């Protein structure tokens, strides 16, 4: 294989070439350097995708539209690596993974990728031991993916539960036009149910519009709830701030009350001190009076008072003597 030749081709067919993870260096170079590659056929090789060498190169190729990896040895782990690239690959429209034993695990990984992929239109996962779990996962991807047109999922192990989930999820999808379910373990009635839903595009559109309306309403309610939650959170913060301020005011009130009590105690102490000073002044004054010398008066004659009583009588005798009466 000549790299310079291959990078100039839009379609490269390397099927039945005995390729495996250890000899794909030229293939990796083509994917990394080609600016025109549209289709790559790797059918019936022994590629297992045990590491990210090939998938990393595939992610770098933004021109490829069709990738055929049918009848290789990819398995569930390789399916998960490939799904990681498929999730946001910008150009890939067809992916053929038939007969690779990816199982439910690989199918679930592919389904997750489909939920975000916007380019894939044809997906082939026939003959991969996919059961109801994998089928349900792919079915639920229909609710989000609106690019997938055709799904080959025949020759697996899908039963009525998985197929019934597909029938139900198709009601929310208007892009899928055909699903191949032959050679699974599905009853005829469930197969007809899937076909009926697929063919009733009017009902699917109405259901899809109803679902979109419900989703829009749910989104509006969620936004309203989020806004209310934000307001409640803001109010809660305000309440906490108010509570903190009130606590500070209460603390200040307690400080003021404590100061008032200190003032009252000081005033009482001052009053007690003043009363004590008055008592000291009284005692001092009394002591000084007691210390003054006592002046003793001369003793009076015991007959002084009697003399005062006799004097008028003596005056009367003197008057009689001066004017004797006439008999």
Number of beta-strand segments: 7
Characterize the biggest β-sheet: 7 strands, parallel
What proportion of the residues form beta strands (DSSP E)? 5-15%
**Gap between N and C termini, in Å?**
206 Å
Overall form = rod-shaped
Strand order of the largest sheet: 1-2-3-4-5-6-7
Number of H/I helices? 10
The string of secondary-structure elements, in order, is HEHEHEHEHEHEHEHHH
Summing up helix and strand content along with how strands pair, one would put the structural category as alpha/beta
* Percent helix: 55-70%
How much is the average pLDDT?
87
Kindly provide the radius of gyration, computed on alpha-carbon positions and rounded to a whole number of angstroms: 59 Å
What low-confidence regions span 5 or more consecutive residues with pLDDT below 50? Answer: none
Task: Itemize the secondary structure elements and their pairings.
Elements: H1 3-6, E1 11-13, H2 25-33, E2 39-41, H3 53-60, E3 66-68, H4 75-86, E4 94-96, H5 103-116, E5 122-124, H6 132-141, E6 150-152, H7 160-169, E7 178-180, H8 188-199, H9 201-290, H10 304-322
Parallel strand pairs: 1-2, 2-3, 3-4, 4-5, 5-6, 6-7
Helix pairs in contact: 2-3, 3-4, 4-5, 5-6, 6-7, 7-8
What do you see in this structure?
With 327 residues, the chain is of the alpha/beta class. 57% of the residues lie in helices and 6% in strands. It contains ten helices and seven strands. The chain has helices at 3-6, 25-33, 53-60, 75-86, 103-116, 132-141, 160-169, 188-199, 201-290, 304-322, and strands at residues 11-13, 39-41, 66-68, 94-96, 122-124, 150-152, 178-180. Strands 1-2-3-4-5-6-7 form a seven-stranded parallel β-sheet, with no helix packed on it. Strand 5, helix 6 (132-141) and strand 6 form a beta-alpha-beta unit. The protein starts with a helix and ends in a 5-residue tail after the last helix. The model has no long low-confidence stretch (mean pLDDT 87).
């Amino acid at each position: 294989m000549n790299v310079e030749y291959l990078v100039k081709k839009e379609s490269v067919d390397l099927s039945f070439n005995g390729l495996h993870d250890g000899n794909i260096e030229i293939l990796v170079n083509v994917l990394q350097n080609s600016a025109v590659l549209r289709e790559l056929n790797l059918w019936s090789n022994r590629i297992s995708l045990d590491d990210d060498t090939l998938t990393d190169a595939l992610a770098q190729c933004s021109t490829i539209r069709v990738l055929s990896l049918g009848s290789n040895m990819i398995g569930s782990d390789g399916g998960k690596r490939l799904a990681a690239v498929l999730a946001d690959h910008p150009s890939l429209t067809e992916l053929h993974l038939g007969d690779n034993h990816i199982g439910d695990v690989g199918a679930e990984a592919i389904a997750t990728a489909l939920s975000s992929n916007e380019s894939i239109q044809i997906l082939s996962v026939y003959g991969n031991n996919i059961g109801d779990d994998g089928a349900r996962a792919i079915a639920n991807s229909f609710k989000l993916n609106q690019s997938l047109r055709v799904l080959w999922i025949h020759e697996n192990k899908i039963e009525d539960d998985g197929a019934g989930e597909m029938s139900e999820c198709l009601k929310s999808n208007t892009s899928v036009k055909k699903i191949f379910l032959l050679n699974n373990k599905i009853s005829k009635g469930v197969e007809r149910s899937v076909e009926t839903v697929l063919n009733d595009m009017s009902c699917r559109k109405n259901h899809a519009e109803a679902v979109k309306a419900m989703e829009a309403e749910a989104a509006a309610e969620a936004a309203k709830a989020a806004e209310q939650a934000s307001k409640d959170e803001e109010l809660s913060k305000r309440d906490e701030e108010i509570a903190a301020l009130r606590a500070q005011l209460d603390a200040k009130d307690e400080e003021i009350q404590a100061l008032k009590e200190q003032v009252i105690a000081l005033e009482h102490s001052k009053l007690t001190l003043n009363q004590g000073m008055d008592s000291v002044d009284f005692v001092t004054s009394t002591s000084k009076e007691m210390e003054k010398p006592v002046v003793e008066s001369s003793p009076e004659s015991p007959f002084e008072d009697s003399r005062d009583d006799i004097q008028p009588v003596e005056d009367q005798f003197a008057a009689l003597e001066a004017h004797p009466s006439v008999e």
